[in-house]
Each structure stands twice: as structure tokens, then as C-alpha cells.
Amino acid sequence: MSLLRRNSWRYLLRHPAQMLLAILGVALGVAVMVSIDLANGSALRAFELSSETITGKATDQIVGGPNGLPSALYRQIRVDLGLRLSAPVVEANVGLPDRPGRSFRLLGVDAFAEGPFRPYLAVGSSAANLGPLLTQPNTAIISFETAQTLAITTGDTLEIRVAGVRQPLRIVGLLEGGDELSRRGLADVLLTDIATAQELVGRPDRISRIDLILPAATREATLAQLRAIIPADADLTTPGARSATFSQMTRAFEVNLQALSLLALIVGVFLIYNTMTFSVVQRRTLFGTLRSLGVTRGEVFGLIISEAALVGALGAILGVALGIVLGRGLVQLVTQTINDLYFSVNVQAVDLALWPLLKGLILGLGATVLAACVPALEATLAAPRTVLRRSSVEERMRRLLPRTTASGVLLLLAGLGILQIPTRNLIVSFSALFAILIGCALLTPAVTVGLMQLMRPVFGRAFGLLGRMAARDVVAALSRTGVAIAALMVAVSVTVGAGTMIGSFRQTVVQWLDTSLQADIFISSPSLNATRTDVPLDPAVVQRIVTTEGVTGVTTFVGLQVGSDAGPTNLLALQLANDPRNRQALTFIGDSDAAWSRFISGEGVWVSEPYAYRTGRGLGDTLTLQSERGPQTFPIVGVYYDYASDVGTVTINRATFDRFWNVPQISSMAVWAAPDADIDALVTRLQTNAGGTQDLLIQPNQAIRQATLEVFDRTFAITAVLQVLATIVAFIGILSALMALQLERARELGVLRANGLTPGQLWAMVLSQTGLMGLTAGLLALPVGMILAVVLVFVINKRSFGWTLQMQFDPGLLVQALVVSIVAALLAGLYPAWRMARTSPALALREE
Amino acid sequence: MKQPNTQALIDIRNVGKSFIEGGHERIVLHQASTQIQRGESVALLGRSGSGKSTLLNILSGIDAPTTGVITIDGVALHSLNERDRTLFRRRNIGFVFQFFNLIPTLSVEENVLLPVELNGTVTAAKRDAARELLRRVGLGDRGAAFPDKLSGGEQQRVAIARALAHDPALVLADEPTGNLDAATGEQVLQLLDDMTRQAGKTLIMVTHSTAIAARADRILHLEDGRLVEHSLLEVNE
Lengths: 848, 237
Description:
The complex is a heterodimer of chains A (848) and B (237).
Chain A: H1 3-14, H2 16-55, E1 60-63, E2 69-70, H3 71-80, E3 86-95, E4 103-109, H4 111-114, H5 131-135, E5 139-143, H6 144-150, E6 157-162, E7 165-175, H7 180-185, E8 189-193, H8 194-200, E9 206-207, E10 209-212, H9 219-229, E11 235-237, H10 239-249, H11 251-282, H12 284-292, H13 297-341, H14 354-381, H15 384-387, H16 392-419, H17 426-463, H18 465-476, H19 478-516, E12 521-524, H20 539-546, E13 551-562, E14 569-575, H21 592-600, E15 605-608, H22 609-615, E16 622-627, E17 630-640, E18 650-653, H23 654-660, E19 668-673, H24 679-690, E20 697-700, H25 701-715, H26 717-744, H27 746-754, H28 759-801, H29 811-837, H30 841-847
Parallel strand pairs in A: 4-8, 5-7, 14-18, 15-17
Antiparallel strand pairs in A: 1-10, 1-11, 2-9, 3-4, 3-10, 6-7, 12-19, 12-20, 13-14, 13-19, 15-18, 16-17
Chain B: E1 10-21, E2 24-36, E3 41-45, H1 52-60, E4 67-72, E5 75-76, H2 82-92, E6 93-96, H3 108-118, H4 124-136, H5 152-165, E7 170-174, H6 182-199, E8 202-207, H7 210-213, E9 218-223, E10 226-230, H8 232-236
Parallel strand pairs in B: 3-8, 3-9, 6-7, 7-8
Antiparallel strand pairs in B: 1-2, 1-4, 4-5, 9-10
Helix pairs in contact in B: 3-4, 3-5, 4-5, 5-6
């Protein structure tokens, strides 16, 4: 190792706290990012793996509509068309009543057709013995690993819930995936014979889809033949297209989380910049000496950059390791949200894909080196003479202040300008948000100078000379205090911005629930998806509900997914009770009366605001839905506010629906009671009358309200975790800056101590200074946070999910942000103050 | 003044240096001209703020003159870019500072070897030479120690060894005893004088002490930015 490198290495070793804080800052930033990537990736990968395992080698699929496909179609394809490479599949999501949250994909297959598709299921395959499935009713096979997780084995009975009904299944075999991916893909598969599956889902003679392997040469011709014979509401698609549709659903959710995670890294970059600036300032004499001895600028630059690279590499490696640990925790939160809002997915473990880990390493290292470039350039561009001078960095900072401020204003304006671009691209929107944030961060030094000028006389009057010194010192060391304040400001402003956005969103949802939950009681069967009720209610149960004493009216719903010219669409058919309160349940954009009258007359459909936004269809446009009687085009006669899902819903009058679909089921009901009825007593009566056949959720509207808000809070739990982590990184940043600052002032403080400053006064002075820094960061964070909130509410949210939110500022949140900022800064000042107070003045003077 | 000599190591011609302070020009050096021979020992005398350190910085290429030309060993410094000036300094000039400026994270021996390594010429023989230099400054047994374990005098002796380690033609010393007590300062000066003379190096030493200046072959006096050559007698008067 060269002497320069050795000198550098020893410097880092001699400042372990400084180095450790910097490494920790990078590590936390990287960890947050990696963990989010891993959690997102794991959830989607689990879904993809499961789909791939289930899809096998199929090139094409015929996917049935709400009623599936007739079994006869399969026979027709295999026999009449001679497509021997075809396999029927019955697929459904099922739950375990004893394990809430655990779901399976029920896969009913014909073992004799399976060979070319899913070799591990082929008759005679060593991986599984499907024999018992064919010969014994109500039997299933699960994967070896899943059996271990559930602590069951061959011969045991597993109780599942299909369509709200509990069904026992005897496990007659364990399936072993040939490789790791197959094993993971099979983790949530419950395999049965096709007849068993048809019986379980209550649709004998119907199948969900037909998998096909079509040779490339004859594919187009075969597809044309197939199109001619498949039912009107069936979809001829490819497995890849289906999978992509699901990925697309969660795209906005993922991008939002990634942007939040990137924020932690940005705060980390501030920290690195601060640390590296300090390490340069601390060694200005050393660099001056080296330059005098003939070390070139390039060599000094290389030296500082290599130190940063070392810190960055260590931080990134530690961050990746931390990210994996954190990812294991976050994956549950992400999975919960995807299950709540989008589709059923079962994640058993974090998928340690290479790219997120590599990305963490590259970004951690890259961001650190990039952040170190500025101080490295400062050290190398200054002449040796000025590097030797103690105040040169501060002089430079003051000289650059107008330019920094102007850059901040320009960046801020650029960010606001980018927001005006009419795009739905979230990357563009988040770039604008980051530009605004960094622009405001660049304004921090100038605001700090101004604020300290105001504070100096106030602190002077309150604390005398020491108070004035505290305010002056913040400005005197602006190169370091400015960055620390900016880092804290960014973290706190994000808390204000995200907090205000979540608060506004929650308040909007509360108002929406208050108006939409007009009925007294809601009834559905437990679903795997918190925001969709897609499990059909038993007709006998429906009849018993309608005739229960005290029920004055019933609105029924059936939810299903259909194809449309705007992609897969959640369709809700609505049969309204004859109750005037119905009309208050929905708030329309535009003319409400026209929307109601045209809907009731069967003239068209309503779409929810997110659906309208996502598909670009609005009032007066048309929408073509794949019905059992072929494509049907409906005008859109109303767009209503709806916060249940960002995928959106199309609502159709039940009478109109029945003309085109033969789906007699009802999946949920809203029950109306007399105005003065005892709702709790009615709930009990309904439970007694309707219970027993099917698992039912019979909930008064307050319980639905509560449950919806619980889903809401669960969705944003991950945001709160990320905010806390970003604040921790900022805290480390300000601690690191203050330690550096106080240690650098050792001699000055030694002189003060020698002149009679008591340790108590020293504590007061250091804490006054750090408190002022916290106050500055907090005060700045309030307007910046509000700007961020406006952008998040009116731009990011709208572009991500299509929701219109009512903006609401919470004064409590603003006060809390200010307090957090000051307390964080004061806490960060404790250690440096303690350390300086117990250092003997003689030592402090000598050490200089 | 001595007559110009074509064999001179350093040729200073009409060198001026001024700074802009508060919108006004402050002249630190005014048309300074002289020549310094190989092996010559020169004291640069003057009060605080007279421009001594500025001239030293200009001589080493750390700072550039506002006017005039400096040639060292036939190389005009102004013709070099910043990087080449740094490389020239690295090869041809040794520095002794008032505040020692040893590298705290390098051991004593490593400090001495630093200029050699910067020149990329570390060999076993150079290492031996560095140890010999340390032995000559009386610190042969302290090679493994770090600077913070040494007294001020010892640190300055290491700095002298470092200044000579890469065998430069010129040694510049900026008030090398300014931070030492009288007795230690005397020892350090003796050492610096002996070692540069024995090695045949040119030494330019900034000082404001006439007693120290008396050791030099020549005394250059900086008065209000003007370089004047004095005899010792004149200086004492």
C-alpha cells in the first residue's frame, strides 16, 4: 500500500465514530431501497412463479368468462380439432379458515393430459403419484414444503374454504418440485383431480381454462379456428399477457414505494456529503502540506474519492445485508397490501434476486462517490496556500451562497415546470418532486443565514454572549451546518408531506364511507381480497336474508371480472333496493340526477373515477364489455368517486346485466332496516336465520367503516416505516455533522473553558446551537412539506391511482414535525456536548 | 548585490505580487530581483507581513507571481502548468515548515520516505538513506513512532530529514524555529545548516531573527515588499 493510501486508511481508522456513522448512513439508505425492491420483487415473483408453475409450458390459453367454459369445449378442441396438446384446468383461490391470510390456488387437472404441460404432474412421473386423486373423491396433493409448514402429512385432512363454504380435503400425496423454482412455485398450489375441483367450486361440467401448446408454424391458423368456436365471453390469450396484466395492476403501488425508498438514499447522500466535507476540512492542513510536498491535485482527488469508495462499499455491503433482513419484515406488509387491493399472493420467503442486491451496491457506492466529489474538488481546486488556511472552506461556502441559492430556485422552478407536463408517467412526476425537494434543500443555507440573523438578538437577550455565539456559530460553520440542516429538513418535510397526504386521503375516505355506507347492514362471504366481494352467496341464504323480520329492503351486488376493450375489468352488477337513501350513497362528477335516471333506465354504465382515469374513458364515452352474448357496447352515463380500489370498477344495472350474462349469483348484499330499528338485534336475527350453510360476514355499516379504515391504515403502514427510517438516516446525519463540528471547535471551546466557561455553560452553548439547527430545519420543513403534500395529493396520487383527494392540513402534524426536528437535533447534540464538556481544556488546547 | 551568475540555481526577475483587498490593490512584493547560487545559504529577513512567506510560496510554485519571472535550474516556473509545477516541486524542492506539518497518520520513517515515494523512486537504498538521515538527525531509534509521540524539536528534525530525503536541489524553510524554544531552535538550525551544506543544497530560510540570519551566506531583506540585499553588519545596525 502506498504511503498516501496508508495515511488515508489510518485517518479513517483514527476516526472510527465518524466513519461508522457515515457507513451506517449509506447502509440505512441502501437497506431501505433494497428491502423495498426485495419485498416488491418477492411478492410479484411469487405470483409469477406460481403462475408459471401452474401454466407450465402452455403457449396459449382459452380463459373462460364469469361462468367458465363448458367441458364440452375441451372435448371439441381435443377431438374435433385434433389438438392433442391441450389440457383442461379448473382454478380457484381458496382460503384456510384456520389460518386467516393463508391462501392457495386450487388447481384441478386431468392427469392424462398433463404430461406435455406440467411434466411433474404427468402420470408415471416420479415427482407425484396422481393415482389416488383419480380414484378417491375429495383428495388433494400439496407440496412437500407446504406440508411441512402446515405440519400435516399424507392421510391428514385439510379444511379449506371455497365460496364461503368449508370443505375437507384429504391429503393423499406430497409433490416435490424438481428444482428450487418449481418448489417455490408449488408452495401455494393445492392440486386435485379436475372432477374434485369442479365439485368444490360448485360448477360441475365447467372448467376455468384450457391450456394449449400450439406449434409456431400452424399457430395463427389454429387460433383462427379456436376463435370461431369459443364462447363470446371467453378470452384467447397467452400466459405472458395474463401475467403482465397482473404486474401492471401493482405498478403504481411499486413505483410509489420505490420513490419513498429512494428518498432514504437521498438523505443518506446528504450525510455522506457532510461527512466527506468534514473529513476534508479536518485535514486541510494535511492536504496543504501534501500539496506543498508535491502531491498533485489528481492524487488528492483520488485519495478522497477512494476513501469515499471504501465507506460507500462497506456501507453498501452492510446495507444490502440489512436490506435482506428488513425485506423479510416488509415483504409481509407489501404482500398484505397486494392481497388487500389487487390479487391473492402467497409469499413464503424473500426472493433474493440478484438485481436488487446489485442495484443497492451500485447505487450505494455510486451515490457515496458522487457525494464525495464536491468536497474532493474543493480540496483539490484550492491552491495549497488556501487549503492551509482554516477559513478557506467557509469563505468558499459564503462566496457560493448566492449561486447555491439561485440553483435552488432554478431547481424548484424546474420541478414545478415538470409537474405541468401533462403525463401519467410516474417517473417524470417523481423526478419533479425530487427536483423540488433538492431545490428547497439548496435554499437551506441562505434561509439559515437569514434566520440566524433574526435569532441572534433574541438568543443574545435570552442567553447573553453565549446565546449570540450559538447563533453565530451556526452561520460561521455553514458548510457543515447547512448540509446537516438540509438533510434534517428533507426528512422532516417528507414526514409533513406524506403525513398530510395520508391524513387528507384518510379524511377523504372517511367522508366517502360516511356517504357511501347508507345501508344499515352489509352481508358477504369471506373473500381473499379485502376490497372485493367475489364469493357467491348461496341462493337459499339470500332468500332467508330477504325474508328476515326487520329487513325493509335489499340492494344486491355481484362482482366479477370480464374482458373489455379497456382490458380486464371489475364489473359490479347492482340491483337497487327501493330506498331513497340509495341515491346518497354515490357522489358523481357532474350531473348526479342524469347519471341516476340513465342508469336506472338501463341506458348505460357507471365507472368509478380510478377506472375512468386508468382507461381514459369519461362521461359520454363508450365501453365494450365481453358478455356471454358477445361484445356489448355501453355508454358511460356517470363517473363516481370511489376509493375502494385503484383498479376501478364498472357498475351496471342488474336488469341490463341479466340481459347479457347468465350469472344468477349474488356476491354481497346491503340490507336496509326501518329508521328506528335496533341494528344489533337485526344482525343477530340475520346470523340466526342465514347462518349454518355458508360462512358469512354480517356487519353493521360501522363495522364495515372500521374494517375499511383498517385496510387503509395497513396499506400505509409501510409508508410510516419508510418515514421513520428516513428520519433515522437524517438523525445520523445531524449527529455526524455536530460531532464533526464540535470536535473541530475543540480548541475554541478549550479557550472558552480556560477562560472560565463551566461545563454546564458549554452544554448550554452546544445544545443552543444544535437546537437552533433543529428549529431552522423544522421551520423550513413546514412550507416544504406542504408543497410536497400538494404535489403528492394533486399530482402523484392522481397520476398513480386516479383518485381526487380533499386536501387537509393538520396543525397537530405541523407542530409535531417541528418538535421532532428540534428534539432530533437536541438529541444529536447530546453526545458531542457530553464529550466536549468532559475533555480537559488543556488537552483541547494541546490537540490543536 | 552580487553580480548575476550564469550558473545560478535560482533567477528571480522583477517579481511582483499584489492582492485585491476590499476593492484596493495591496502590493506585497515589488519588482524583486536576485540570483541564488547552487549550495548557497540565504536568509530572507523581514518583519511580519513583509512578504517573506509570499516570496517563498512563489519560489516553490505554490503561488504564482503577478509579474516577473522565476527560473529554477533553468526552468521558468511560469511556463509550467499547475500539475507540472507540482511535479517540479516534488522532484526539486524540500520544505521545512514553521508548524512541522508532519503527516500525523504516518510513522516517522514513513514521513521521511513520503517525498521519495511521491517521486516513485523507493528502493532499498533509498530506505537505507532515509534511515541514515533519521540517524543523522538523532532519531534513528524513533522510525516507528508517530509524530504525536515526539516533541516539537524532534518533529522539526524529522521535517528536516523529510526535506532532504529525495535529494532536492533546493530546501525552503519557513521560520523553522518559530515554534521552538531557543535552545531547541538552535539545535535545529545547526542541524539544518550542517545537513544542507554537507549535501551541497541551496537553502532559503525565512526568519525575522537577525541572529538566525547571521548563519546564512547572504541575507536578503524584504522591506515594504522590496527585496534588498544587506550585509550582516548592516542588518545588525
